[in-house]
Amino acid sequence: MYLDLLALASYQTAPPLSGNELTKAIDHLYKSLDLLEGARRRVETGILDALFTSDDLAKGWFQVNCCRVYTENVIILEEYLQPAMGLINDAKCMIDSLVAWELGMTFNGRLHIINCLNEAESAIRGVVEEMEGWVTVSKDDNLCPNCGRRYAYGDNYCSGCGSRLSQETV
Fold first, then answer.
1. What is the biggest distance separating any 2 CA atoms in the chain, rounded to whole angstroms?
2. Which candidate, 41, 38, 85, 90, places its Cα nearest to that of 62?
3. Which of 41, 50, 96, 118, CA to CA, is 20 to 30 A from 6?
4. Three-state DSSP class for residue 26
């Protein structure tokens, strides 16, 4: 799905990031997912330490923003990361509001926070999947044995000659 979206956005199957930038961006997203998962678990179990949860959400938002430093030119990824950042911020604001107003967590409030975090995690995981698809083992591993043209890691058919790529070369 994401590869089709990238094609619509006029990108080739080659990643628009260098290898170093790609690994740094993926690392930031994994850090964000870890922080968001911890915050979501605390909210789900009802053991809400608002200070730690709010801090984890702020750090998770920051990690997504650090990833965006590398992916800002990839419009299709931005369309997933920006709403994810908004959802993280929404969840953080809800928790901060509970603390500021000295209120407890209501059932509906907890559901809204969990829903925001689930949707944010889903968007971030989709971007991570796409970016991990761009990671290749080595430069020579992505050459078609028939025509010698480069192909994206994970492709089943060569775009140059149309031949099926065997499982050993993919």
1. 68
2. 85
3. 118
4. helix
Q: Give the integer Cα–Cα distance in Å for 19 and 11.
A: 17
For residues 109 and 150, state if they share a domain: no
Task: Read off the pLDDT of residues 41-80 as tens digits, 9 standing for 90 and up.
Answer: 999 998 778 889 999 999 999 999 999 999 988 888 999 9
Amino acid identity at 94: M
Q: Which two tokens stand for residue 102?
A: 């000295």
Are 84 and 123 contacting, i.e. CB atoms less than 8 angstroms apart? yes
Residues 142 and 125 placed together within one structural domain of the fold? no
Contact of 39 with 4, CB cutoff 8 Å: no
pTM of the model: 0.73
Both 170 and 104 in a single domain? no
